[in-house]
Design goal:
single chain; mainly beta; three-stranded antiparallel β-sheet
Length: 81
């Protein structure tokens, strides 16, 4: 028994490819847009500070949790203001 279901076409599922810039090698760059949330996770002896990041070309539902220190090092402009 398969859990897969037949795809039912929907007009809202159309992706606008004109807004995505594709490189010559068929890759594209995804940049963080904004920070949605901050939290900290307690490990055994450490406390990890996390931020929930909304990425370009993605919805807020696709946001990911990243280490705050890594994001500060790579994208300091997100933490200004």
């Amino acid at each position: 028994m398969s859990l897969l279901r037949k795809y039912i076409p929907d007009a809202s599922h159309v992706i606008d490819y004109s807004s995505i810039k594709v490189n010559v090698d068929a890759t594209f760059v995804v940049e963080p847009v904004r920070i949605l949330d901050r939290s900290s996770k307690r490990l055994r002896r450490k406390e990890a500070k996390l931020v929930k990041v909304c990425w370009s070309h993605h919805d807020e539902s696709d946001a990911s949790r990243e280490l705050e220190s890594d994001m500060r090092a790579k994208y300091p402009k997100l933490f200004l203001g």
